[in-house]
Every structure is written in C-alpha cells, then in structure tokens.
Amino acid sequence: MSVKQAISRATSEKLFETAKTYFPGGVNSPVRAFKSVEGAPLFIKKGDGCTIWDEDGNEFVDFCCSWGPLILGHNHQGIYNKVLETLQNGTSFGAPTVLENELAELILSRNPYIDKIRFVSSGTEAVMSALRLARGYTGRKKVVKFEGCYHGHSDSLLVKAGSGLVTFGESSSAGVPAEFANETLVLPLNDIEALKNCFEVHGNDIACAIIEPIPANNGLLLQEKSFLLALREICTKYNSLLFFDEVISGFRVGFNGAAELLDITPDIITYGKIIGGGLPVGAYGARKEIMAQISPDGPVYQAGTLSGNPVAMAAGIAQLTECAKPGFYEDQERRTRIFVDAINDYAKSKEYDFELVTLASIFWISFDGKRNIHRADEINPDMTKFSRLHWSLLNHGIYIGPSGYEVGFISQAHTEEVLTKTAQLFCACLDEVFN
C-alpha cells in the first residue's frame, strides 16, 4: 500500500497489547478491535468539537461521533456545564429525580407518536424491554425482523435468515438457543411479497414487526416508502405492533426521528444514547394503553438500577434542548450536503466506482457506484478498498468507524470550513485507493 506518511501508532499498539491481557480481543465491544481494517486500534485520549486526539498525539476530524450520539460534537460546553452542575449533587441515587421529568417533558411534549416513555441504560436494553412489552400486550410470541437491521445483542434478535423468503431465524451467535431464535421470523428488506407471505402464514402469532426504518447498522439501506407503508398496513390488519427501532435515527434525522421524516406512525419506538448526550441512556415509548402494561402499572416486568441516572438525564436535557431549536436539523443536512456532494462530484469526475450514500446528517461509504442498495445481501462483501481507504483517511487526519458496514455522522461542530477542507483530503485518499 502506497501511503506517503503513515501516522505513528506506537503508543496505541503498546496499549492494545496490554488490553489483550485484560479483555477478550483487547476490547469491550468487537468492532473496536480494527479487525476489518489495517493496523492496531487507536486509543483515543480526548475530543473537542469535531476533533479527537489519540494517545500518540495524532489529531483527527471525527466522523464516528461515538457512533452517532454526539450530534453537537465532543465536549460541548452546554452539556459539560449541565453535567458539572449535576455532579455537585451526586452521581446516582436509584430514586426518582426531577431531571427525569424534565427530559421526558422535553421529548414527549414534541412527540406525537408516543404518550409515555421509560428510560433505560442502552439501546439493547430498550429493544429487549420493548419486545417483552409487545409480547405481553398482544399475548403472542413471534417477532418479525429484517435481515440487515441490527437491534442490539439480546438473544432473540441475534439471528440471521435461514433458507427461503419466509423463514425462522437461525442463531448468528454461540450461546443463543435455537428455541429463542425460532421465535424470530427473518425477512429481506424492501420485499413486500415476502412480508405478505409471512403474515399470511404466521400473522395470528406475530406480536410485532421490528425494523430500523432507516437501516444504518449494515450499510445505509434506504427503504422505499411504499415498503414501510405496506408494513404499517399489514401490522394493522393482523393486530401486530409496528416497532420502529430508532436507536440511530431518533433525534438524528429529525427531532422525532424517522417516524416524523417518513410520516409513518409506529406503535412502539426505541431511542438510544443520543438522548443522553453520549452518556449511557436508552428509552422506549408507546401509546398510553400499551405502556400501561409495564410494571408497576401492569404485568410486564422491567427494571434498572441506573435507569434515569441524573448525570445522563442532565446531559440529555442539554443536548436535546439544542436539537429542538428551529432550523437545527435543516442546518445539519445543509452542511452534510456540502461534504457529501464535493466528494461524490469528484468521484464521478474521476469515474471511480464509489459513492457516499446519505440521508440527513448520516453518510455511508459505498464502493458499488451509483447502484441503489436496499438490502444487506446487495452489498459487495469485498471490503479491500474500504480497508485501504480507512488506512489512507487516518494518515490524512480523518477518523471514521473501522468497518465498511458502519455509517458516518456529521455533528453541529463540523463547520463548513472544516467540511470543505476535509472533503478535499478525502478526495486525495480516493486517489490513493483507486490509483
């Protein structure tokens, strides 16, 4: 690989070797291990605005943004001040605080899709809890999910498709009993016929259909609205709940997420750490009659010692207050287009088989040219070019997630000036990859 000046990773490499003696694979979440790209993972020391620094002193423009939650950028002053103020009173009580009420009011007063909300500590926990709620509310067992959508690492959702269009899921992780996976029906995305066939056979047993309305965990698999409308219609017909997993899209593509953007009303919604300013938070919400099933009001049990943690609530209030300001999301999309269009126009002029696929302030790196990709099995599995690009980007001071299936994010801290300059560097990296 021809790179003019490779960054030093000596300190990160040493830290990674030490980490391997403490953690499986040296990490506490698998993608961090850089298995899909070149070199050792970078150990990040600090972040400010749109910039991060690693332990070797290298500086990067960050498009990972802690995998999306940092929509205002790193170390935002408003969040910092609110967290510091809250810390003066303690870190955790395991009891109600006024901050929970304030964040819930901030969300619910602007959200026409849910009446009540329950805070938890992660997106995985939110989805797991909401699935239990769907089953408890409907009295049914089976769940429909779509291949290419990720919903956290709870057992019944760590499944992949078996053979055929209407199929029981097969476990995609050791430790998940087949009995768990068999309660999950896996369908291809953007396939209305497969959806209809599945419900015709299993409709009376399906508690809910769970989907990322904007699938962004396995590429950015933009769905045709007709498919999502058909899903809404079929769920209504069979009295199954439509479950939008908006852990990534919620508060990212708009204050009320994909439901608002697409004008489709789900029955249950989950949100992720963006509502905690980057601190560990998740949430699920629904109409009053559905949420009435949750303990202590109803028979569906769910609890969490750190749910509604005051420091995380404070960070969420500070962040979402900014997101709720008029024009916030329009400006996010405008600046994202500056970055994306500059790179795509350059790639087109060079006839590179490359495109940044984008929606709102999310983008995904595709080496499939201009081909529309709606399903996971349509993605070219050869990630050689992505690995080369990732290496080149790091050496040009640009940080993205270390997997070709992951998306990138623009934050409020990415100014027009930074995005214009970074787009030029990105184009230079494309030249290295293709030439």
Question: Can you characterise this structure?
Answer:
This protein is of the alpha/beta class and 435 residues long. It has two domains: 10-75 and 327-434, Alpha-Beta Complex (Aspartate Aminotransferase, domain 1), CATH 3.90.1150; 77-323, 3-Layer(aba) Sandwich (Aspartate Aminotransferase, domain 2). The protein has helices at 10-20, 77-87, 98-108, 123-138, 178-181, 192-202, 225-237, 257-262, 288-291, 310-323, 328-349, 384-395, 416-434; strands at 44-48, 51-54, 59-62, 116-120, 142-147, 159-160, 167-168, 170-171, 184-188, 206-211, 241-246, 268-271, 282-286, 355-359, 362-366, 398-399, 408-409. The strands form four sheets. The protein has an eight-stranded mixed β-sheet, sandwiched between helices. It has a four-stranded mixed β-sheet with strand order 1-2-3-16. Strand 1 and strand 2 (51-54) form a beta hairpin. The chain is globular and about 60 Å long. Residues 162-167 have low confidence and may be disordered.
The domain tally reads: 2
Helical content stands at 25-40%
* Shape field: globular
Q: What is the beta-strand fraction?
A: 15-25%
CATH class of the largest domain: Alpha Beta
**CATH-defined topology of the largest domain:** Aspartate Aminotransferase, domain 2
From the N-terminal CA to the C-terminal CA, the straight-line distance is: 11 Å
Question: What kind of sheet is the major sheet?
Answer: 8 strands, mixed
Number of helices: 13
- What is the CA-atom radius of gyration, in angstroms? 22 Å
Structural class by sheet pairing and helices: alpha/beta
Query: Which sequence of strands runs across the widest sheet?
Result: 4-13-12-11-10-5-9-7
Mean pLDDT: 93
Q: How would you name the CATH homologous superfamily of the largest domain?
A: Type I PLP-dependent aspartate aminotransferase-like (Major domain)
Low-confidence stretches: 162-167
H-E string: HEEEHHEHEEEEHEHEHEHEEHHHEEHEEH
Q: How many E strands?
A: 17
CATH architecture of the largest domain: 3-Layer(aba) Sandwich
